[in-house]
Design a protein that fits this description.
Layout (H helix, E strand, L loop, with lengths): L18 E4 L5 E6 L5 H9 L3 H8 L8 H8 L6 E8 L2 E11 L12 E8 L8 H15 L4 E6 L4 H8 L4 E7 L2 E7 L4 H23 L3 E5 L8 H11 L5 E5 L9 E2 L2 E4 L11 E4 L6 H10 L4 E4 L9 H16 L3 E3 L5 E4 L6 E4 L7 E8 L2 H13 L4 E6 L8 H8 L7 E6 L5 H12 L4 E5 L20 H10 L3 E3 L2 H13 L7 E6 L2 H13 L3 E2 L3 E2 L6 H13 L5 E6 L2 E2 L5 E2 L3 H14 L5 E5 L5 H6 L56 E2 L2 H21 L15 H12 L8 E2 L2 H9 L8 E3 L3 H11 L3 E5 L13 E5 L2 H15 L2 H4 L1 E5 L5 E10 L3 E8 L2 H6 L2 E5 L4 H9 L18 H17 L3 E11 L4 E3 L2 E5 L17
Parallel strand pairs: 5-6, 9-10, 9-13, 10-12, 13-14, 14-15, 18-19, 18-20, 20-21, 21-22, 23-24, 23-25, 23-26, 26-29, 29-30
Antiparallel strand pairs: 1-2, 2-3, 3-4, 4-5, 6-8, 7-8, 11-12, 16-17, 16-19, 27-28, 31-41, 32-35, 33-34, 33-35, 36-37, 36-39, 37-38, 39-40, 39-41
């Protein structure tokens, strides 16, 4: 909405304050600044507020607003006087306003940093979390305008409003004065306020997904009069799944006397139905979708599944059509799956929803599946079905213009019907949020991801989201840090998902291998070694082994305290006539299930070759599966599972969602299912992923901490002032690199000392510089094409005197070019050590990333660099150093002296703290960092500053707008 001429031009309408939010009940609403055009909306809104709510707002009977009130509440300067409104369907449902005041409580302007705030919410929308969302947004607006505190007067009987302030998590003071409660809120975000905000975001977004997955009624819009077509197909699938709610068919072309279609009531519009519709499946041409959305919104539909194509996948015009679809749907409080979606499925017995193009619903199971591709969704459904796996829910979101994988992570976090979350993603709309949600969800259940479009450098058609410029290897490392199980193919995703859904997590990497084929056992052993597992020598039961021999061997392996997991290999028996006998697969499966059910809780996987019926029999749920409470633990020698997570932030003492007991087999549909694989490599890869995930879970139970550095080596405020000086009053949006001296000065304020390098434009200057520094010295070039390339001969070390320095200078200029081209410098020698590189950079999509590796061309060519998200914890820093392949060089490889890794970890943490405290520092590169036996030396540094990029994961909660 544009400002009117009456508004001051130097306080233009702040459109960046506009936001779509998800409310507590899962519906959406829009928050925006109030303008002078809103007079009629304000009056209409006020008329629908009860007398009691008006009394609480004005402390007196106030039946109607005067013309003066309306003018006051719709005219703002957006600096000292600000009003925000919450709208649904274009009409106000709530307002909030602040007025800047001085110490005497009178109207004021900056530098006064306190404001009086007041809310009013329509009674029909109270209890939906409207005021809490408004408080987050008005507080962010106030901070932007230099206001640090809110003051509010609340009547003691207005318990709802008092609770809104009390539960916000801000530091606050309360007093009772003149018959009212006086509240003062410090608007500086706190750990508690951020935790409260994220807990509310989780509950709201999870509820919005639940409304889509568990509707009480569904209308399929675009059902054809004749059999066939997308709409009729969805209706048939919906009926075939046994949906427990009410179903309606809608098409504007139906005749007035069309009573039913396929046995369900037929109507020409949603408005004609006359009953509440919770979910609408839209299967009409794209140009007719807006009228359908309006029909749904005006008649109270809660959510949409838009199967229609013709949106962002068709180019710029379609992308704008897609944005308008989302804006329109959200304006009515509806969330949208799609457009260009394949649909969604919920296998719960209380719902049985198949609102998709899949002809058959998968059977019920413990796996949740989200995909951004209909074709991949079909393939995954088929693959899981063949392997006997069931699903709790399936979502194929198409262009995912609104509801995304992040929303379903919010839902699955506490969904008791889902033990494993599988996601096929082609783009990440908000990578920061994704890693945060994945880390939290991964603490209670596994999250397995396949990332498509990894190397294209652009998003797939239809996905209008920011493009990340960081390499795919970096994305993978950051996912691992968040506990995400990143696999390369959908086949691997199914393999890993089956193991995690049906088997307990391993306590370690020790693997027992047993079977009736020595060769297959050796292949399995080799695969385990390649994946970093610790296999025991395979136990060969010989080809004459019976199912009971398998049972006894498996029971012994499970009881062995030196074993964490078991892989069983099986080939067909060979009869006396030399022909393979495959008919005993069912018998072998029963024997293996019995041994697994009676033994300690350890994962079991089967590798089979042409064993008829074995895989199907292992996948079948049977009564031989032991209930959760009867499955014996592995014993005292086994590492215990991680403790339950802390109470959910914002709800003191509230229990978290119950984490599946991954040390036991659950009682759900997956219980007793042993995954079977047609190749040893696939089984071992799945087990290796489970081992790594289990290790991450144990570590996540006691996360590291971000050091405070309480000494005086960090000057946060001084650094901020220095950055402001370097950027200047009108900074270039592209930023600027700092000079060597500027970079040294900036880094020094965070305790990072860079050894000075003196320019040597000629031999005499080099000699003078060496005399100033003191011998021995190093002479090196700083030209971009030679920088950090000692292999090209641009560095001369240990120059002990003037003669050696002059010879080195002549050699450099004779070999590589003129001094003007080489830009030589003289630097004091550092103690001998390992040359390393420390970098930090900000990616527009992924956020701030801290990187580490050894210096030199080999490490760069091999991509031997580790990455972690900022802010890094002490554990992150330790893992960063140890996770590169060349890490042994730092720890005394081949008899060398170990490097001072403690000093290196501290340096990493200081760089992390710098870029986290100051987002204007968009790039830092320290190269080389020479790590000696005691201490380290930073010999080179480059720093780049730029105006801070927008952070999509900070500030008040809001839905993304692409």
């Amino acid at each position: 909405m544009e400002p009117t001429p009456e508004q001051s031009p130097h306080h233009a309408y702040p459109d960046h304050w506009e936001a779509d939010v998800v409310l507590r009940d899962g519906g959406t609403a829009r928050i925006r600044p109030i303008t002078t055009d809103d007079a009629e909306r304000l009056v209409s809104f006020y008329e629908q507020v009860s007398d009691e709510s008006k009394y609480y707002r004005f402390f007196a009977p106030y039946p109607r607003l005067s013309a003066r009130d309306v003018h006051r509440f719709t005219h703002h300067d957006y600096v000292d006087r600000v009003g925000l409104a919450v709208t649904i369907g274009g009409e106000f449902i709530a307002t909030v306003r602040f007025d800047r005041i001085n110490e005497q409580g009178r109207p004021a302007s900056a530098p006064a940093d306190e404001a009086e705030v007041a809310f009013l919410v329509q009674d029909a929308h109270q209890g939906r979390g409207v005021a809490s969302a408004l408080l987050e947004h008005i507080a962010a607006v106030a901070r932007e305008r230099g206001i640090r505190r809110f003051a509010a007067e609340v009547l003691p009987a207005n318990n709802k409003m008092i609770k809104v302030f009390r539960d916000a998590g801000f530091t606050q003071q309360r007093s009772f004065e003149d018959g009212s409660v006086h509240l003062t809120l410090d608007l500086e975000p706190t750990a508690e306020s951020l935790a409260v905000q994220r807990a509310r975001e989780q509950r709201a977004e999870a509820r919005s997904v639940q409304r889509l997955l568990a509707p009480g009624s569904v209308a399929v819009i675009g059902v054809g009069r004749a059999p066939g077509g997308v709409g009729r197909t969805v209706l048939r699938n919906l009926l075939g799944s046994g949906f427990t709610g009410r179903t309606y068919a809608v098409n504007t072309s139906f005749d007035a006397d069309t009573g039913t279609v396929d046995g369900v009531p037929a109507h020409r519009s949603v408005g004609e139905i006359g009953e509440r519709v919770d979910l609408a499946v839209v299967a009409v041409p794209a140009d007719r979708v807006p009228e359908v959305v309006a029909d749904c919104g005006e008649n109270g539909v809660q959510g949409l599944v838009v199967l229609s194509a013709g949106y962002a996948e068709r180019g710029a015009e379609g992308r704008e059509r897609q944005r308008e679809l989302v804006r329109q749907a959200r304006s009515y409080g509806m969330r949208t799956i799609g457009p260009n979606a394949f649909g969604l499925i919920n296998t719960s017995g209380t719902v049985r929803l198949n609102a998709s193009l899949a002809p058959e619903s998968p059977k019920a199971g413990r796996i949740g599946l989200f995909t951004q591709s209909g074709a991949i969704g079909i393939a995954l459904l088929s693959g899981l079905h063949r392997r006997g796996a069931g699903l709790s829910a399936f979502i194929s979101a198409g262009n995912r213009a609104d509801v995304s994988g992040n929303d379903f992570l919010q839902y699955w976090y506490e969904d008791q019907d889902t033990d494993v979350a599988l996601l096929y993603l082609e783009s990440l709309g908000n990578p920061r949020k994704f890693t945060r949600l994945a880390r939290r969800t991964g603490a209670v259940k596994p999250v397995v991801v396949v990332k498509g479009a990894r190397h294209s450098g652009s998003n797939p058609p239809g996905h209008a989201v920011p493009v990340s410029r960081i390499p795919d290897a970096t994305v993978s490392a950051l996912m691992r840090q968040a506990g995400v199980i990143r696999v390369d193919t959908v086949t691997e995703m199914v393999d890993v998902g089956l193991l995690l859904a049906g088997q307990p997590l391993p306590d370690g990497p020790r693997v027992a291998i047993l079977g009736n084929s020595e060769s297959l056992g050796l292949l399995t052993y080799d695969a385990c070694m390649a994946e970093g597992l610790r296999p025991r020598p395979p136990r060969d039961l010989t080809t004459m082994a019976s199912p009971q021999d398998f049972r006894h061997a498996l029971a012994e392996a499970l009881a062995d305290r030196t074993c964490d997991a078991v892989i069983v290999t099986a080939i067909p028996w060979v009869g006396e006539n030399g022909e393979a006998e495959t008919g005993d697969g069912e018998v072998l499966a029963a024997a293996l299930r019995e041994a697994a059910a009676d033994g300690p809780a350890k994962p079991v996987a089967v590798v089979h070759v042409e064993m008829g019926g074995l895989a199907q029999a292992l996948a079948a749920a049977t009564s031989t599966a032991a209930p959760r409470e009867t499955r014996r633990p592995a014993g005292p020698a086994a590492a215990p599972g991680p403790p339950a997570p802390a109470p959910r932030p914002g709800e003191a003492g509230a229990p978290p969602p119950t984490a599946p007991d991954r040390g036991t087999v659950g009682p759900g549909p997956s219980a007793g299912r042993i995954p079977a694989y047609p190749a040893a490599e696939r089984a071992v890869r799945a087990l290796a992923e489970a081992v790594k995930y289990a290790q991450w879970r144990r570590q996540a139970a006691s996360p590291g901490r971000v050091p405070e550095f309480l000494d005086d080596t960090i000057d946060e405020h001084g650094t901020a002032a220095l950055i402001e000086t370097f950027l200047g009053p009108s900074p270039d949006p592209r930023g600027r690199p700092l000079t060597h001296d500027e970079g040294r000065e900036l880094l020094a304020r965070y305790g990072v000392t860079v050894r000075p390098a003196l320019p040597a434009p000629d031999p005499e200057a080099a000699v003078a510089a060496a005399a100033k520094i003191g011998y021995p010295v190093a002479l090196k070039t700083t030209a971009p094409h030679l920088r950090h390339r000692a292999d090209l001969g641009g560095v001369r070390l240990d120059l002990a005197g003037e003669d050696a320095l002059r010879r080195a200078y002549d050699e450099l200029t004779d070999l590589l070019g003129t001094p003007a081209e080489l830009r030589p410098v003289v630097q004091a020698m550092a103690p001998r050590g390992v040359d390393t590189v420390v970098r930090a950079s900000i990616d527009a999509a992924a956020g701030a990333v801290l990187s580490f590796g050894l210096a030199g061309a080999p490490s760069e060519l091999l991509g031997d660099t580790a990455h972690r998200l900022v802010p890094a914890t002490d554990r992150d820093a330790a893992e960063l150093i140890r996770s590169i392949k060349a890490a042994p060089v730092l720890f005394g490889w081949r008899g060398s002296a170990p490097a001072d890794t403690a000093a290196l970890e501290e340096l990493l943490l200081r760089v992390s703290r710098l870029v986290d405290d100051h987002p204007e520092v968009v790039s830092v590169a320290l190269e080389p960092v020479v790590v000696a036996t005691h201490g380290l030396t930073v010999l080179g540094a480059s720093v780049r500053l730029a105006p801070p990029p927008a952070r999509s994961d900070l500030g008040p909660r809001r839905l993304p707008s692409y």
